[in-house]
Amino acid sequence: MKIAALLVVAGLAAAANAGVHTGPGGAIPDSSTAGPGVFVSTIDASVDTDFPITSVVVVLRFGTGTVAGNREHTWANDLIATVSFGATNVRLFNLQGGSGDMNGPYTFAAGGAAFPPAAVLGNLPNGTYAPFDALAAFNGGASNGIWTLTISDNVGGDVGDIVNWELRIIPAPGALALLGLGGLVAGRRNRR
Fold first, then answer.
1. CB count, 10 Å around CB of 10?
2. pLDDT of residue 186
3. What CA–CA distances, in Å, run from 15 to 8, 22, 151, 167, 187?
4. Distance between CA 21 and CA 149 in Å, rounded?
5. Dist CA 168 CA 137 (whole Å)
6. Which of 113-117, 131-135, 170-174 is predicted least confidently?
7. CA gap 158, 28 in Å, rounded
8. Radius of gyration over alpha carbons of the chain, in Å?
9. Where residue 71 falls among pLDDT bands split at 50, 70, 90?
10. In Å, how far from its chain's centre is CA 169?
11. What is the pLDDT of residue 33?
12. Alpha-carbon torsion (131, 108, 91, 18), positive or negative
């Protein structure tokens, strides 16, 4: 019975962490006469058990001005950030934030505050914001595969970096129950 309990706990712990991924950052190219500068980063979530999605949370970590070669992005209003999975695209922000600088972590989740639409002096406040489009567009779908973050700089003159980004895929409660049930069945078999 102790083995069964351990398997249940291990299954639930694995499920709780299974959907957390970090993608690489880099420089966001400045816009030019040739068009917007575009940064693209991918996360391969294929390593996870394929489970239905209940919700998605995205964290963007922009550079800080205190580290050489790792700059905040000035003029947030220049940027459009989009997360894509399969044929579904969700804009996190869309030419918002005025002259405020993107500096530090910004979390995008259902129920977050409205992203600052107008000019903010200095850095945009770090916090949890509602995305421009609903992240619920991913709900109910499968979780494994390639997820893509695209950030376009649509106005010249301001540059910056994204340090990295985090994707948190929250499984449907049924997926957690199945993992726990699997632990119980395995434990029951071990008792015989």
1. 13
2. 45
3. 11, 17, 30, 15, 18
4. 12
5. 15
6. 170-174
7. 10
8. 20
9. confident
10. 8
11. 83
12. negative
Q: List the domains of the chain with CATH numbers.
A: 20-171 (2.60.120)
Q: Which amino acid is at 33?
A: T
Residue 174 pLDDT level (bands cut at 50, 70, 90)? low
Residue 19: closest CA among 59, 53, 69:
53
Rounded alpha-carbon distances, angstroms, from residue 23 to 150, 171, 179, 192: 12, 19, 26, 45
